[in-house]
C-alpha cells in the first residue's frame, strides 16, 4: 500500500506532489463510500481521535467529526471555551491529559501560527492541523484543489486567482503551496495593505486590478476579510473594499468567458461576493464543503495506516 511521506498533517508545505495525488486518489474512493446508502466503513474502528478547537469553526469541525464517524473511529470533542484552559492549563498539558485516555490522533484548530508544529514536537500522537492562525489550513487547500480537479480533471496549467485578504489568510498560503506543487499558475489580488511583502517569493504574481485578474483566470477563489486577525487598521472601509475587490454578477458578465467561483466560507455576502455569484451555476462553494468530508476521511485514513504500521 502507498504511504504518505509524513506522520502528521501540519501544512501543505511539508507534503510532496505524490502525497497530494495519494490523498486525492484515496478521497476518490471515500467519495464513493459517502454517496452510498450505507455511508460508513470500519477502517478506523480501532482508532480514537480528539478534535481540539481553540477557535470557532462550522465547516472544519463538523466535517472532521463526520469524516471520523464515517470511518468508525471513536471521537471526542474539545472546545477551549468550555475547558480547563481558562484555569491556566497549558496546551501540552491539555493534550497530554487527553492522550492519557489512549487517544491516537489529534485534530487541532488554534489561533497561533505554528501551534500544530509545536505540539507535534512535544506529544506522542499524530497531529492534524485544522487551521493555525494565519499560517496554514491544509485540509481546506486539499478540498479546494480536489474540487478543482473534480471539475477540470487536471490542475497543471490551470489559472487560479486568490482574491482578498491574502495577508491574514491561512487558506491562501496552503492553496498556493498545493497549487504550485501541482503545476498551476497562481495570481493573488487584493489591497496592497492586505498583501504580504514577500508573497512573490512563493512563485505567485500579484495583480492589483480585479478585472484583469478575473479576465486572466479560470478560477477565482474569493476570501473573506479577516477583521479578527487585524491588530492595526489595514482596512480602509468596507464600501471601498466592495468597490475595488467585490465580485458581483454584473462584473462577471463583462468577462470574455465564464469563470469558476470558489470560497472557503464563511461568506460575507455583499462584501467579497454577492449572493447571485455565491449561488450561481459557476459557483462550486457547496461542492467544496461536500468534498471536505471525503478529503478528511482520506487524510485520517492515511495517517492512521502509519500509526498501525509503527505498532506492528
Ligand atoms: N473554511 C473554514 O475553515 O470554515 P470554518 O471556519 O467554519 O471551519
Structural notes for this entry:
- The chain is of the alpha/beta class.
- It folds into 2 domains: 12-136 and 291-311, Rossmann fold, CATH 3.40.50.1370; 138-288, Rossmann fold (3-Layer(aba) Sandwich).
- The chain is 40% helix and 14% strand.
- Helix 1 (17-34) packs across helix 11 and helix 2 packs across helix 11.
- It is globular.
- It starts with 16 loop residues before the first helix and ends with a helix.
- Phosphoric acid mono(formamide)ester (CP) binds at residues 57-60, 131, 137, 140, 264-266.
- It catalyses: carbamoyl phosphate + L-aspartate = N-carbamoyl-L-aspartate + phosphate + H(+).
Secondary structure: elements and pairs:
Blueprint lengths: L16 H18 L13 E6 L5 H12 L3 E6 L11 H9 L5 E6 L4 H8 L3 E7 L5 H15 L6 E5 L6 H12 L3 E5 L15 E2 L3 H7 L2 E4 L15 H8 L3 H5 L6 E3 L12 H4 L6 H27 L1
Parallel strand pairs: 1-2, 1-3, 3-4, 5-6, 5-8, 6-7, 8-9
Bound molecules: phosphoric acid mono(formamide)ester (CP).
Phosphoric acid mono(formamide)ester binds next to helix 2.
Condensed summary:
This protein has 312 residues and is of the alpha/beta class.
